Amino acid sequence: MPEITFQKATIEDIDAFIAIEQKSAHSYMYSNCADREDAEDELKNCEVYFIKKDGVIVGSTEYQIKEPGHAYMSGLVIDPAFQGQGIARKAIEFKLEQLKDMKRIDLVTHPHNSKVICMYLSYGFIIEAWKDNYYGDGQPRLVLALNR
Ligand SMILES: CC(C)(COP(=O)(O)OP(=O)(O)OC[C@H]1O[C@@H](n2cnc3c(N)ncnc32)[C@H](O)[C@@H]1OP(=O)(O)O)[C@@H](O)C(=O)NCCC(=O)NCCS
């Protein structure tokens, strides 16, 4: 049985973080770090974790505490070579466990990203809103939220 583990990334891991983001996300459905400065901001302002399979980095996942009781799930990418193995589900479950005391958890995703939408709905998230041109690239996003 392969072992999936999570390792907190720091600013020293910036090159590995950029590499996994670049490898995994080439789609109008996912807005990855535009440049090094962007990646630096993510590492400074979010809790970024590498997802490892048997010790090898196969993805990254992030969240950010917006205010007491409110967390935002800001990123999730899996290396295409390792997709479809249930790793994203494990990453979501890891984040939900870290954030189990939060009253509200939310995220945004592209309305065409059905894999992601179905996954979050299965954990009790609801589709709360549609936002046009969310990142300024002309693409919309759905707001998904878990309120408890
Ligand atoms: C979305 C993403 C994170 C999913 O990662 P993954 O590890 O392949 O996902 P999982 O293997 O855990 O599968 C998740 C669900 O998608 C389904 N799925 C996986 N690969 C699929 C495929 N090629 N076609 C259709 N469904 C698929 C699985 O059946 C699973 O559903 P289930 O658990 O209900 O059976 C990954 O595709 C990715 O990195 N995409 C680019 C970045 C992105 O869009 N991130 C999300 C932003 S919010």
From TrEMBL:
Keywords carried by this UniProt record: Transferase
Transmembrane domains' residue ranges: none
UniProt-recorded Gene Ontology molecular function terms: acyltransferase activity, transferring groups other than amino-acyl groups
Database matches in InterPro entries: Acyl_CoA_acyltransferase (IPR016181), GNAT_dom (IPR000182)
PROSITE patterns, A to Z: GNAT
One Pfam family named in its UniProt record: Acetyltransf_1
Annotated ranges, domain N-acetyltransferase: 4-148
Protein name per the record: Acetyltransferase
Lineage: Bacteria, Candidatus Wolfeibacteriota
